[in-house]
Amino acid sequence: MIAVFVVLGCAAFLAPGLCCRPKEYPTTDGQCCPMCSEGTIVQRDCTSRSGTRCTRCKNGTFMNQPNGMGKCFTCTSCDSGHGLFVLQVCSDTTDTVCEVIDGYFCKHFDATGCSAAQTHTHCVPGERITEPGTSREDAQCEPCPPDFFSEHGVNCTDWTTCSGTQATLKKGSSITDVVCGDSSRHRYMLILPGSLFAALVVSLLVALGIKVKQMKLSSENKQTP
């Protein structure tokens, strides 16, 4: 009596299809039909004389669970332009599995693989890589410490120390090294312009004296009767 009451109560007070057993699905007319298996979907609901008619998912679609649906899921596309490649191709029972290309890391990872990727951070000049990027983690950067430089944003190198016989021609920065030069040559280069200037002045004075002497002789010749 209790079992009969439960069945009648279910039929009377619940919406059609809610009393379907496991691995059955409700139809629009309130019937319960056997579900289609993975890789297939419903082509026609069951009747009193026949079971559910199922059809396989077409290429580019899949169904990964027993179901009573009339449409397969669309396979995921792995976009190489967004850093993804196909690790496992889609089948009628499984979705595509995507993985990240070298130089990218996965921003969103789920049971079907990576669904969103991003390029690794590139450390700029003046910084160094503290943690290289992986397929799951971004690269990590930090500034070079004082008296160190990084030209390409990879490693930090300490500044060159000029020797006692050298002069510092250019100070170092976070992106460039110290430039050293020969101290004697440096002094010579400072003295040389002064030497040239003095020689030029002497030459001009000599030329001017010759010119004055020529003018004086010319004037005396004109005054002679």
UniProtKB/TrEMBL annotation:
Pfam families: TNFR_c6. This is TNFR-Cys domain-containing protein. Disulfide bonds join C57-C72. It comes from the Eukaryota. The chain crosses the membrane at residues 188-210. Residues 56-98 form the TNFR-Cys domain. GO terms for molecular function: transmembrane signaling receptor activity. One of its GO terms (cellular component) is external side of plasma membrane. Keywords: Disulfide bond, Membrane, Signal, Transmembrane, Transmembrane helix. The keyword Cell cycle does not apply. The keyword Signal applies. TNFR-Cys repeats lie at residues 56-98.
